[in-house]
Amino acid sequence: MYRNLGELISKNAKLYPDRKHIYHYDKQYTFAETDKIVNRTAAVLASYGVKKGDKVAMLVGNSPEYMFAYFSIVRLGAVAVPQNIFLKAKEIYLNLNDCWADYFISTEAFAPVVKEVVDMVPSIKKVFAFEGTSFNSINIHTARVKDELPEIEEIDRDELAVLIYTSGTTGRAKGVMLTHANLLANARQFKIAVDLNENDIAVAVLPIFHAYAFMTCIIGPLAVGGGVVIFESVQDVGKESYTKAIMTYKPTILIAVPQLYSALARRKLTKEEQNALPFRLYISGGAPLPMDTILAFKESYGQDILEGYGLSEASPIAAINPIGATKPGTIGLVFPEMECKIIDDNGKE
Q: Which one, out of 11, 101, 172, 314, has a CA that is 20 to 30 A from the CA of 119?
């Protein structure tokens, strides 16, 4: 039982210190290595004023640094505010001004946006990065800190852990408030629904700033001592580096969206090629899965795609097709321990 999200790294570091759990092209990190970096990052943030309850915005692409930043924030009891890396400065400004963000973590890749946003959001006190940048920032790797392991205030499971900005179906983006308990509960439900275990390794090709990818690729596997292969973007699929990583690290779960499965389904694999793939599960979300994609994928890969459904407010997964009993064209069964109802346009059940 985890008391808060910060323990997802620290407890695994004690139980499985030498187990690798992050794979990023040629880089690999054990739980012990990740825990050390997260502690160091948390120490830097704390040294420059980040404390429990502060809102720390993140504009970071798919990378181990995203995980280091996120888990250092929640380890301090602060609130992570992930930002869509494809947004323009004005859109990020609206989000950060809405929640009165206190701090900002980003990278040189987003320098033009960061410079513009920081000038527009008066509540931001300091900006951090894992490198030297052209914008005014504190380099987490080189900053001096008094203590590598800052004393951490008790964090209750029902305290706010993350603010996820989503436009939903109408108007401007709104901040969805999720607690440590919300996310840990959804990780447990995901584990039960797809039989997640410590040998599972997910593939993160979707943007992990998104609630769907972060739960299925990061938090879910972490909660059982599993791992993740992180790629910078979905554009990597089909490249030699992607194929090499898949065959080397042998991930067991591919998390994707219908467009990617449609592209994959167009490849006609031989039986030998099917057998060489390490995946035990293919999971789809984000949009309805077309029936022709379902059928073509089954013919090419010899496996079903588990279609599911979720929304940021539900932390985010709410339903998924059961393994071995999928019903094409549906979102499957409601998650364990979750209640749902269907209503019409007038709100009638």
A: 172
Q: Which of 76, 75, 116, 81 is nearest to 100 (CA)?
A: 81
Q: Which two tokens stand for residue 134?
A: 């052209």
Q: List the alpha helices (DSSP H) in the chain.
A: 7-15, 31-47, 64-75, 89-99, 111-120, 180-194, 211-213, 220-222, 240-249, 258-265, 271-276, 291-301
The band of 318, judged by pLDDT with boundaries at 50, 70 and 90, is very high
Residue-wise over 145-162: b if at least 16 C-beta within 10 A, else e? beeeebebeebebebbbb
pLDDT per residue over 130-182, tens digit each?
Answer: 999 999 999 999 998 876 666 777 899 999 999 999 986 667 899 999 999 99
Taking the C-alpha atoms of residue 287 and residue 308, their distance in angstroms, rounded to an integer, is 9
Q: What is the DSSP letter of 237?
A: T
Task: List C-alpha distances in Å: 12 to 8, 20, 21, 146.
Answer: 6, 11, 10, 26
Place of tokens 């005014």: 136
Alpha-carbon gap, residue 21 to 202, rounded angstroms: 10
Residue bearing tokens 């509540």: 123
Q: What are phi and psi for residue 326, nearest 5 degrees? A: -70, 150
DSSP string, 291-347: HHHHHHHHHHHSS--EEEEE-GGGSSEEEEPPTT---TTS--EEPTT-------TTS
DSSP for 247-263, written as a single string? HHH--SEEEE-HHHHHH
**Pairing between strand 20-24 and 227-230?**
parallel
Report the interhelical angle of 89-99 vs 111-120 (nearest 10°). 40
Tokens (6 digits) for 230: 């992180």
Hey, what amino acid is at 11?
A: K
Helix axes 7-15, 31-47, angle to 10 degrees: 140
Measuring CA to CA, which residue among 200, 166, 206 is closest to residue 61?
A: 206
Is 180 exposed, middle or buried (CB count within 10 Å of its CB: 0-12, 13-18, 19+)? Answer: buried
* Per-residue pLDDT tens over the stretch 110-125: 999 999 999 999 999 9
